[in-house]
Amino acid sequence: MLIFLPSRLLSADKADMILIEKSQRSLKLIKNGNIIKTYPINLGFDPIGHKFYEGDGKTPEGLYYISQKVINSAFYISFKISYPNKWDKINAKEINKNPGGYIMIHGHPKNSKKFTKDWTNGCIALSNKNINELSKRINIKTPVLILK
């Protein structure tokens, strides 16, 4: 059971999990079972359903982790998640497709203007202000659970 506490009570804590709820367009930082911060997000250009192959515009669903901070990214700040996992690879192979592999949690592209809702190729996008804050609250290997 998640307990909602004001973010100011736990704001200095690093998250021990990231929960992304696609249907709510939210990214929640979890610490010891408590939501410590919630951010609005944008998703892939065709976000409903699980990602099966590169180019489908879907944001994956499942359990992943932050695998690295991406240096020299086209985006303000970027964190790669561990997509595709073993099951994603099997699912893509069954339909003779490439699962893709560069799904990130990121800010806006450098030198960007305004964006419409769900503009990524399958990534999770936050405002540059929010991704900057998020980067101070997570570590490499932080689990990422992405739900419908």
Commentary on this structure:
By secondary structure, this protein is an alpha/beta fold. It contains three helices and nine strands, in the order E-H-E-E-E-E-E-H-E-E-H-E. It has a nine-stranded mixed β-sheet. The radius of gyration is 15 Å and the shape is globular. The two termini are 19 Å apart.
Alpha-beta content class: alpha/beta
- Quote the beta fraction: 25-35%
Total number of beta strands: 9
Q: Report the end-to-end length measured between terminal Cα atoms.
A: 19 Å
Major β-sheet annotation: 9 strands, mixed
Globally, the shape reads globular
Order of helices and strands: EHEEEEEHEEHE
The percentage helix is: 10-25%
Strand order of the largest sheet: 1-4-3-2-9-5-6-7-8
User: What's the rounded overall pLDDT mean?
Assistant: 90
User: Spans of 5+ residues with little confidence (pLDDT < 50)?
Assistant: 1-11
Number of alpha- plus pi-helical segments: 3
Q: Can you give me a brief rundown of this structure?
A:
The chain is of the alpha/beta class.
Offer a few descriptive terms.
alpha/beta; 148 residues; 9-stranded mixed beta sheet; 28% strand; disordered N terminus
What is the secondary structure topology, with strand pairs?
Layout: E1 3-4, H1 7-10, E2 17-21, E3 26-31, E4 34-40, E5 62-69, E6 78-81, H2 86-94, E7 104-106, E8 124-125, H3 128-135, E9 143-147
Parallel strand pairs: 1-4, 2-9, 7-8
Antiparallel strand pairs: 2-3, 3-4, 5-6, 5-9, 6-7
